[in-house]
Amino acid sequence: MRLRSLRRRLPSRVRMTTVFAAAVALTASLTSAVPSSAGTSAPAAERAAARSAERGGPGQPEAHDVVLAVHGGAGTALDPDHTSPAEERAYRAGLTDALRAGQRVLRRGGDSVAAVEAAVRVLEDNELFNAGKGAVFTADAGHELDASIMRGSNQAAGAVAGVRSVRNPISAARLVMDRTRHVLLAGEGADDFAARAGLPTVTQDYYWTQRRWDQLMAAKEKERGARDGRGGDEGAGAKDAGAKGADSTKGTVGAVALDGRRHLAAATSTGGMTNKMPGRIGDSPLIGAGTYAKDGTVAASATGHGEVFIRGAATATIAHLMEYSRLGVAQAAHQVLIKQLPQLGGDGGVIALDGKGTFDAPHSSPGMLYGYLTRDGRIITKIFPSESPANE
């Protein structure tokens, strides 16, 4: 309880102080005082409170000396009351595996682009996440996937939208960046390009999972209930989904990285929204909305209500606030995610990393799945709302 109480008081204390060094020292002392591993013997509630205490106040960075971060979607995150220990381990392992994949690239001298691609590929291959194998269904029971990637050193970018047969859309996005004069390819043209380039292709049934099918059926039932004027369907559907261990995240996976040459990169991939109209494109493949990277400024990958992130030019606005208003990465991300986008009618989150390794993951949604890797090899994962409370 003392840690929870301290967590609630910390934001106002940080805002009130006029001595920046004192705020940094206080945040650092809290971070060093809590365990960094989810595998300790402490009770789950105590571990959650300790992880929650790691976050700084509004506009304060969550961590320093970060070289890689990933996210697995924003939304309600996971409900600890309906998440078994095995499911918790699986989600944490999924985020950790992605971070380890990017870490291997960085350790052997690879660049940040290769690191974010490697990390996102792991998440695309994990059916727990809404990208690649675990992609959600469209309204006509199909799968249409989007992805983008951006190199901070020269702001080169590549993206694919509405692909239906590429196993790893993020790799197709990188090929668009590296091998074409274009930034975005869509639909059949993007699928054909990826196949000609030698990327592994799959049939639509590869993406199928029972959990995503059940979510589509629940969405269809809710839709029918709304048309018929029936009440209560939404609450029942949410309860049933939780009982089955299904999360209500808005989907999308992403990664940001800073390599040994101080180059930044960002990547994002998604299956979109459950029951979306065929042909719908969200923010994930759009540079400046779902993905952005510029050396010396920021690498950012977003997740949330795609239409709102497009209208708010979310990730580019973070970069512009840093570059032209001289805001820090946490201040800029907080301004966009917590103050601006909700006014447009949507919520979500972002992982943002600057050229010095300063990291933050603000979100206006009740929770977000994410993790990060520090320069000394420490890995932190956060999957429950208590570990990563929504910013206010």
Descriptive overview:
The chain is globular, with a radius of gyration of 20 Å. The strands form two sheets. The chain has an eight-stranded mixed beta sheet with strand order 4-3-2-6-5-1-11-12. A four-stranded antiparallel beta sheet has the order 7-8-9-10. 40% of the residues lie in helices and 18% in strands. A hairpin with a 5-residue loop joins strand 9 and strand 10 (359-360). Residues 1-54 and 231-248 have low confidence and may be disordered. The chain is an alpha+beta fold and 392 residues long. Helix 1 runs parallel beside helix 3. The chain contains twelve helices and twelve strands.
Mean pLDDT: 84
Helix share bin:
25-40%
Shape: globular
Order of helices and strands: HHHEHHEEHEHHHEEEEHHHEEEE
Distance between the termini: 21 Å
The strand line-up of the biggest sheet is 4-3-2-6-5-1-11-12
How many individual helices?
12
Strand content: 15-25%
* Strand element count: 12
- The whole-angstrom Rg is 20 Å
Q: Runs with pLDDT <50, length 5+? A: 1-54, 231-248
Biggest pleated sheet: 8 strands, mixed
Which secondary-structure class do the elements indicate?
Answer: alpha+beta
Please give a handful of descriptors for the protein shown:
392 residues; disordered N terminus; 12 helices; 12 strands; eight-stranded mixed sheet; four-stranded antiparallel sheet; globular; 40% helix
Q: What would you say about this model in short?
A:
By secondary structure, the chain is an alpha+beta fold.
Topology:
Elements: H1 2-16, H2 20-33, H3 44-54, E1 66-75, H4 85-107, H5 112-124, E2 145-151, E3 157-163, H6 169-179, E4 184-186, H7 187-196, H8 210-228, H9 233-243, E5 253-258, E6 264-270, E7 291-294, E8 298-304, H10 306-311, H11 314-324, H12 329-340, E9 348-353, E10 359-360, E11 367-374, E12 379-382
Parallel strand pairs: 3-4
Antiparallel strand pairs: 1-5, 1-11, 2-3, 2-6, 5-6, 7-8, 8-9, 9-10, 11-12
